[in-house]
Amino acid sequence: MATVGFLHTAHAHVRAFRDLLNERDDTVADRHLVDTGLLTTARDRGIDSVRPALADRLRRLVGEGADVVVCTCSTVGPTAKAVGAEMGLRVVRVDRPMAEAAVLAGRRIAVVSSLAEAAATVLPLLRECAETTGRAVQLIEVRCPDTWSSFESGDVLTYTTGVAEAVRTQVRALDPPVDVVVLAQASMVDAAPLLRDLHVPVLTSPRLAIEAAVELVTSLRGFAARP
User: Fold this and answer.
1) Domain residue extents for the chain
2) CA 82, CA 103: separation in Å to the nearest integer?
3) Cα–Cα distance between 98 and 209 in angstroms, integer?
4) pLDDT (tens digit per residue) in 93-129
5) 176 preceded by cis ω (within 30°)?
6) What pTM does this model have?
7) Domain 96-204, what architecture?
């Protein structure tokens, strides 16, 4: 059976990604590993400090049968992908499919983050995707750092509504308006339905990452099954 592994830095992501995977393709198995210390250590000591831990966690997921791993943390995602490549493992950054979709959706892109570290990884990714597709984009940062403590404490509702309100206030004040809003962190997924009144696309990473992971694991399994 094809299996997608998930490396999380928050317990709240397990159910969300499991549900999305089952909705997309219930024949694909899932394995989840949560390490909240990865993000804390990366923020306190720098991203290179978690490389050995990332290698260990990825090996554990492979040991549980994962063919492909989705790293659901934007901050550690680039390093997880690099470490996975060294191991011969395909790691999907949760934010890459969203970034690819964003640069196709419009020129002026609002990029929402509650962590500076997440912004520092997503912004270069958007620029890279724009360059790859030959598109000129303008990235407008929307920061809501005061909301993150609610997510850390497990108060997802307060976090979600705080993110939505910050986005609504800042995006509506932009002139000219943006073409698309990118919620840079997977933790922000539930804010999207609260922003329908913006009347522009609001992109989140989880569903698009699941789509990419299922396509990848299916192609890899199909290739392996060929005589």
Assistant:
1) 3-94+207-225, 96-204
2) 23
3) 7
4) 999 999 999 999 999 999 999 999 999 999 999 999 9
5) yes
6) 0.89
7) 3-Layer(aba) Sandwich (3.40)
